């Protein structure tokens, strides 16, 4: 008999699995060791949860009383998630019977009271998430005996004071989050037992002063965030107990002074964020910091940079000085930063770029001078930038570009001059670059396509001339740009386009002629161009008469297009779709020999108004440029 039963068991495993699924509570989702009962409006735990469950998720319900949940039936439970419920308190017996628990998620409840003995039986707990609650006080015994804890989140509560001894014994803790509370002080020795801590987040509190010894014991800490506090003076010994710190964030404080010895005890400092403080000068590094790679001073009140500022930080590769009060490029101070790759000087009241403004920065790849007040640019301003790949001058007041301004840049990839006052671009201003791929000239005052000024650019792919007062485009205006793929001529007040205007652009994929004053186009305008060409022609005052017959035939060969061409003139056809008209509607009679149309546009891309490139400059931008450059060579 027993042999017969065993044969049945092994012969029909799917049937037995199906039977086990009957233990899954109604409305829940169950797998072999996981039960998901989320977003069900539960006020108590459902019955018949399988005893062998290891992961139990009851997020997004209305649970409020943990005493109503009997965890004694789940001896194997390792992960419990009760996020976004209505739990108000954690009592002594709430989790007393699940001593196998490793991870506990209680984020976004209404917890205001936590018993000192709430977690006393959770000796195997590794991760504890209590963020986004209403906790104002934690007893010193709260985490006692939880020596295996690695991650604790207490962010977004009402904790104004850290009880002495709260973190005692947590020698394995690696990450502690106390951000978005109301902490006003850090008593000496608060973190002294956290010898394994790597990350400490204290941002968005009310800290005004960091006393000596506040970070004692944190010899393993690598990342410290003190942003969005009220710190004013940074003393010499504030970070002396942080020999391993690599990332230090002090954004959005009230810092107006940093002692030269402040970072001396942090020899491994790599990333330093001092954005949006009240510094009138960068910090002077009184000690050697060969490991410092990233320094951000955006949004301060820096008016000048002493020559000694960066002498002890020669290996910085990213320096962000945007939104300060610099009246000129600090050439002398920057010249010692020979490893600099990214330099952001945007939104400073810099009025001119003199010759050799960036002397010594031979490794610079990205330079941003966006939204300054630059009026004049010397033809030798960028001399020496042999590795430069991107220059951003958008949003200035530059009216003229001299010959050779952007020459001798063998690796230049992108130049952005969007939103200037450009009226005149001298011949050869951009040199004859074999590497330039993107040129942004929109929103200027150019009255014609700067054909000669552009020179020979065999690699140029994107050219934006939108929003310039260009009234006509002459023959072969882009013949020296054989690899152009995107050409923007939107809202230029164009009224005439020569039938060979786009000659030589056999690789063009997107042409934007929207919002001009075009009434008709020659039938041969788009012949000998790619069958993948996308042409956007709407928002023009099209005159639908016999002169449009050839163009009308071209339209009939377009399989798909972005918007219909709408007739504006004559009045009798106002609002009519050109593609729906015939030769009689266009007042044409007799025989017409029309040139065969080879253009066939595909799906038109929805391209916004070419606003240029992202303001944020990172080394990732350099990587993407190098990748695209390599891919297209």
Structure description:
Residues 540-589 form the LRRCT domain. Residues 1-18 form the signal peptide. This protein has 633 residues and is mostly beta strands. The chain is 8% helix and 15% strand. The chain is built from 6 helices and 35 strands. The strands form 7 sheets. The chain has a 23-stranded mixed beta sheet, with helices on one face. A two-stranded parallel ribbon has the order 5-7. It has a two-stranded parallel ribbon with strand order 13-15. A hairpin with a 3-residue loop joins strand 1 and strand 2. The longest helix has 14 residues, at 619-632. The protein is flat. The N and C termini lie far apart (77 Å). The relative contact order is 0.04. Mean pLDDT is 88; it is low at 1-21 and 590-619.
Task: Describe, in short, the structure shown.
Keywords: Developmental protein, Disulfide bond, Leucine-rich repeat, Repeat, Secreted, Signal. With 633 residues, the chain is mainly beta.
Mean pLDDT, as a whole number?
A: 88
- Which segments are poorly predicted (pLDDT under 50) over 5 or more consecutive residues? 1-21, 590-619
What is the structural class? mainly beta
Q: In percent, how much strand structure appears in the residues?
A: 5-15%
Helicity, in percent? under 10%
Main beta-sheet strand count, sense and barrel state? 23 strands, mixed
Shape type? flat
Counting H and I runs of at least 4 residues, what is the number of helices? 6
The total strand number stands at 35
Q: What is the CA-atom radius of gyration, in angstroms?
A: 34 Å
Cα(first) to Cα(last) distance is 77 Å
Organism: Branchiostoma floridae (Florida lancelet)
Signal peptide: 1-18
InterPro entries: Cys-rich_flank_reg_C, Dev_Immune_Receptor, Leu-rich_rpt, Leu-rich_rpt_typical-subtyp, LRR_dom_sf
Subcellular location: Secreted
